[in-house]
Design a protein that fits this description.
Blueprint: H1 3-20, E1 24-25, H2 26-33, H3 37-50, E2 54-59, E3 62-67, H4 72-79, H5 89-101, E4 104-105, H6 106-113, H7 118-126, E5 130-135, E6 143-147, H8 149-154
Antiparallel strand pairs: 1-3, 2-3, 4-6, 5-6
């Protein structure tokens, strides 16, 4: 790809991602730019390297434009809002259980944590980090929960495959004794 074409494609990709404001499927971007996926990846990498205040995130099979974290304080001054409240320890534990065991029912989450997680599950749903993904084929047809694209964005993960491995011998799929809880 010659430099002139690369700059034109970078500009087009930047304009699309800016205008959409949300993640855009790679297949849609390839169609709009009339290029294949390897070319799209090269354009996105080149654009990302040239951008200073923004970055191009790859989230699953999508790309999204995002502000660089290093400029957060300046953005915060303009918006004059504070950062959303951090997740509580209980919410982080619940989110971890969902991430590593999805799809998972609330009953399973409760059993693993050893406490009622109704509040944590509701807060995570409100924040868009987990979502309902249907119902289990079990008595009472309990709701199944999975993580969302927002979860991937928040933790800067391309996919669930990027989750760190659990320590050897540890699992988040079985209830733990009090001695094992960190």
């Amino acid at each position: 790809m010659i430099l002139k074409d690369m700059r034109k494609l970078e500009g087009a990709l930047e304009a699309i991602l800016f205008a959409m404001g949300d993640a855009v499927e790679k297949s849609s971007l390839c169609g709009a730019l009339e290029i294949d996926e390897p070319q799209l990846e090269a354009v996105a990498a080149s654009l990302s390297a040239r951008c200073n205040g923004v970055r191009i995130l790859e989230i699953g099979s999508c790309y999204q434009m995002s502000s660089s974290a290093q400029y957060y304080e300046y953005i915060q001054k303009i918006l004059q809002t504070s950062r959303p409240a951090p997740l509580s320890q209980a919410a982080l534990e619940t989110l971890s259980i969902v991430a590593y065991n999805q799809p998972v029912t609330k009953t399973t989450i409760d059993a693993i944590r050893g406490v009622d997680c109704t509040y944590s599950v509701a807060r995570l749903c409100e924040r868009g980090l987990i979502d309902e993904a249907g119902r289990a084929e079990l008595p009472g047809r309990p709701i199944l929960y999975v993580t969302t694209m927002e979860f991937l964005r928040m933790f800067a993960l391309r996919s669930l495959d990027d989750l760190p491995p659990l320590p050897e011998g540890k699992t988040l799929s079985e209830p733990q004794t009090e001695d094992e809880v960190v």
